[in-house]
Amino acid sequence: MLGHISSMFRHRWDPYVITALAGQPLRYRALSVNLQTQAGEHLDDSTLTRSLRRLIRSGLVTADNQRLGERDINLYRLTNQGREHLAAYRSLSATYEQHAAGQNSDPARGIQPHHPQSA
User: For the CA atoms of 84, 89, 91, 97, what is the dihedral angle to 10 degrees?
Assistant: First the structure.
């Protein structure tokens, strides 16, 4: 169980990709823009490509090849397994947020240790 949980967070961009694809299938460029907006930072094409390949190999994402004019494009979407992974990720994130909020509201955390002054 713990190994499965740690694997969910092993690669930084994978949770972002899965979350971005939760709403609808996206083309590569739209996915890239969405991810950069979510994260608030630049995402290299090579990083996104590696993440997508890894998620496809894992069975969490599919790449449906479609013809657009004279070009073939991939439309990336979550699989059922990807949706299950997303639900588990969101549950873990919510648990973490609740725990973090509880830690921040703990009055004992605001107490600083007393260090006597030297005379």
Answer: -170
Residues in contact with 11: Cβ distance below 8 Å, sequence separation at least 6, in sequence order? 51, 54
Distance CA 36, CA 49 (A): 14
Alpha carbon of residue 77 to chain centroid:
15
d(CA 73, CA 86): 25
Q: Cβ distance 26 to 34 under 8 Å?
A: yes
Amino acid at 9: F
pTM of the model: 0.70
* CA 98, 15, 87, 37 torsion-angle sign: positive
CA distance 60 to 58: 6
Higher per-residue confidence, 3 vs 28: 28
What is the H or E stretch that residue 2 is in? Answer: helix 2-8
Q: Which positions ≥6 away from 14 have C-beta within 8 Å? A: 8, 51, 54, 55
